[in-house]
Amino acid sequence: MPPQQIEQLRRKVAWRILPLVICLYLVAYLDRANVGFAKLRMANDLQFSEEVFGLGIGIFFIGYLLLEIPGALLVERWSARKWFARILITWGFLSAATAFVETPTQFNVVRFLLGVAEAGFFPGIIVYFTHWFPMRERARAMSGFIVAIPVSLALGAPLSALLLDVHWFALQGWQWLFILEGLPAVFLGVLTLFIFTDRPRDATWLTAAERDYLEGTLAAEAAAKESVKSLTVREALKLPTVWLLALGIFATNTGGYALGFWLPTTVRNLSGGSDQSALLFSGLFYLCGVVGVLYAGYSSDRTGDRKWHCVAGQASTGLFLAASAIPGQPFWLVMIWLCLTGVVAYSWPSPFWALPTQTLTASAAAASIGFINMFANFAGYVGNHLFGWMKQQGATDSACLFFLAFCYLLGALIVSRVRVARA
Q1: Which of 171, 180, 292, 405 could form a disulfide with 175 if both were Cys (CB 3.0 to 4.6 A apart)?
Q2: CATH class name, domain 3-415
């Protein structure tokens, strides 16, 4: 196929696949993270302590662990379209159901089931991208996908600020926040069944020549990896690289997930402002993250480097976050440090998640991605529970931020030990 047609095919696939996937993940991340926005009013109305809230936030990730590896393998061997539709519909209803919890036990149960419902979505998307994007384009595709994280939070923060003051039908604003931000996932789940395409060979919107070229290119990449060494799933999980990636993202996400969920509360405490102003400042932090995601994906694909782009993002986040935690600074300076943190905090995932698919065979990569993401999500439980416990024990906001910064720096150190060929 001539280079001009190849470029046209690349754009056609990107415009067909990425907008829907980004929209799905935007809703997904908002539905898991909006509890951090709702906390500003929910904790007081329900009389939940900081530790209770930390456990409730974190227990989502325990539920998420259960279907990590099976979810990734189902996308590889069954149907991404059907699996993603199931995920979206169930998590949408469960997210909306959070509006009606009254006790810590109910809160924990709903959050746990929400994690079970959403499990397999993120690793499934990573595997799904291997069905559509050649290796040289994968980090850029991942950055387009991961940009949904800061975008969803940047949009969700001011939207949640408006909803907090809504009082309709005897329901509080934080209850409407869960309902109105949860139900769109149900609609998108039904839509997914009709417009999602599993593989290029199923794409009626591609010509026969385009389908053959794309399938052939991806098959050639898979064959090249098979010819070097064919790995079983069990063998893949014994590789030092897989364990370094798992431990690296565990350390990083211990800080990262806690930062995402507790940022509005921390900003409110540091600024002394209202709940609404805290959400707007938080939205600015997330908006800065959009820049970092897009640049990291572009730069990583252009240079072929994955590891050092990832390490640079992790280390920079740790350093800027530590700078924001220095006591005695005026709030405007703290916000400058936090905005710089936001720029780099979301820059490392897209090159990171290109690493497992770079060297492993299809089934081994699918299992490894699920395995690595198990550590990533267990970190969400550990980080949020620890943060809530630290706050309950009287730790200052600065001390908590220093702890999160350390987690990022430790993650950078671990990932720097990974040995992997350039893309």
Answers
A1: 171
A2: mainly alpha
